[in-house]
């Protein structure tokens, strides 16, 4: 019987036949230092009672859950640098650990292990790695140039771009008017250093003399860009063929690629394994798959006779598929031990890259352009002021020239003169 959908196979198979099993492990592949994180370990007890659930980081226990113990002592948390478990959030379901925050010490391999009660004491475990990215609090720092002054042909520019401390190491690139300046370019200096915590500090200095060709629309644009690339692996569930093909076990999902095509048994000597791997659909634009590979007993399959890649349309989207096929009586070194009773553990692994980018821009204006701009902007205000004063002068002339009752003109003229002078002063100050 072929299993095209492993999740459907699990749901259609009675739990009593499967026994205690780990159905899903979720650990974020990449987190930013300071962020919180959820670790999830889902399981199905089947016919077994759960005896214990334990979490480990780098093989050191960080949480133990014993459901058969008295209520006050069921959960034990072990202090470990970088593991900040929020007990209030975790207590409701110890299979889900909430890390209130993370730092560089939080990076490592997290493993969930479940154990059933006697007499069978079935055990299941799975692990996943988490990478912590440390970004500098000040981001990119650009010095040596100012947007508050103007530049002209012949001026010497010495711009410094710094980034750090960060983990992993960042690559810096400098651009003039969107043109990348290569590291080997004249007057370009690059320096790298590391602090006691292994964090990187990178600085790039670019020196040049301004020419007419540097200005475009009376401006020279300088960009400094930093890029951190984090490479990590995400795995599919593991298919384990045992007892010369008479037994097949499928581990829990791992938020990685998906496998289809497994069978419930491969008991015939001439049985063929034919599996298809489809990369995970995480929907994160910052994650880019760069390689997909098959592993048999944790060794990469490289024989072109065993693997094939192709593309196919699904829901109007082009999907990549990777196929693994081989006979169980194959003489390939990865397979030949199977006929002697060796188990086969098969996984599909996708290597992905996540990028963290920052950009800082400085626009240097050509000398004379800023001054002309300032005078041009002041001209409308000056014209507006002249129109106001002209209007006031005309109003004053009409008032003085018009006939008034005897004795009223001097008083009125003095009063109006004071008002007009006050308005003129105010208009100039504005």
From TrEMBL:
Domain (Ig-like) ranges:
14-114
User: Would you indicate the residue range of the signal peptide?
Assistant: none
> Which branch of life, at top level?
Eukaryota
- SUPFAM superfamilies the record matches: Immunoglobulin (SSF48726)
InterPro entries, per this entry?
Answer: Ig-like_dom (IPR007110), Ig-like_dom_sf (IPR036179), Ig-like_fold (IPR013783)
Q: What is this protein called?
A: Uncharacterized protein LOC108864718
Q: Which organism is it from?
A: Galendromus occidentalis (western predatory mite)
The gene for this chain is LOC108864718
């Amino acid at each position: 019987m072929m299993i095209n959908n492993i999740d459907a196979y699990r749901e259609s198979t009675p739990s009593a036949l499967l026994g205690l099993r780990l159905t899903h492990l979720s650990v974020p592949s990449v987190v930013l230092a300071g962020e919180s994180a959820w670790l999830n370990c889902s399981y199905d007890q089947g016919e077994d009672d759960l005896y214990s659930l334990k979490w480990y980081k780098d093989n050191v226990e960080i949480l133990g859950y014993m459901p058969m113990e008295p209520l006050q002592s069921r959960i034990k948390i072990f202090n470990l640098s970088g593991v900040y478990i929020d007990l209030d959030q975790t207590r409701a379901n110890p299979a889900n650990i909430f890390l209130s925050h993370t730092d560089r010490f939080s990076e490592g391999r997290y493993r969930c292990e479940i154990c059933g009660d006697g007499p069978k004491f079935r055990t299941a475990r799975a692990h996943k790695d988490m990478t912590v990215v440390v970004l500098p609090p000040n981001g990119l720092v650009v010095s040596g140039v100012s947007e508050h002054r103007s530049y002209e042909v012949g001026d010497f520019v010495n711009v410094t771009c710094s980034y750090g401390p960060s983990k992993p190491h960042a690559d810096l690139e400098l651009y003039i008017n969107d043109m990348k300046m290569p590291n080997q370019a004249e007057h370009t200096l690059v320096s790298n250093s590391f602090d006691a915590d292994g964090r990187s500090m990178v600085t790039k200095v670019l020196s040049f003399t301004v020419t007419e060709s540097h200005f475009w629309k009376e401006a020279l644009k300088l960009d400094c860009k930093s890029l951190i690339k984090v490479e990590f692996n995400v795995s599919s569930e593991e298919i384990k063929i045992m007892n010369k093909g008479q037994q097949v076990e499928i581990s829990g999902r791992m938020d990685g690629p998906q496998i289809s095509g497994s069978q419930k048994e491969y008991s015939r000597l001439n049985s063929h394994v034919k599996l298809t791997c489809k990369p995970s659909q995480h929907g994160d634009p910052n994650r880019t798959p760069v390689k997909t590979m098959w592993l048999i007993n944790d060794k990469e399959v490289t024989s072109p006779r065993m693997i094939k890649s192709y593309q196919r349309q699904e829901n109007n989207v082009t999907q990549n598929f990777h196929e693994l096929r081989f006979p169980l009586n194959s003489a390939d070194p990865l397979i030949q031990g199977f006929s002697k009773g060796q188990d086969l553990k098969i996984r599909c692994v996708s290597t992905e890259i996540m990028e963290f980018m920052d950009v800082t821009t400085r626009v240097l204006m050509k000398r004379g352009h800023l001054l002309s701009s300032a005078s041009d902007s002041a001209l409308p205000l000056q014209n507006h002021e002249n129109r106001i004063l002209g209007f006031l002068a005309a109003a004053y002339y009409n008032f003085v020239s018009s006939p008034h009752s005897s004795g009223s003109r001097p008083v009125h003229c003095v009063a109006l003169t004071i008002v007009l002078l006050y308005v003129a002063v105010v208009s100039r100050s504005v």
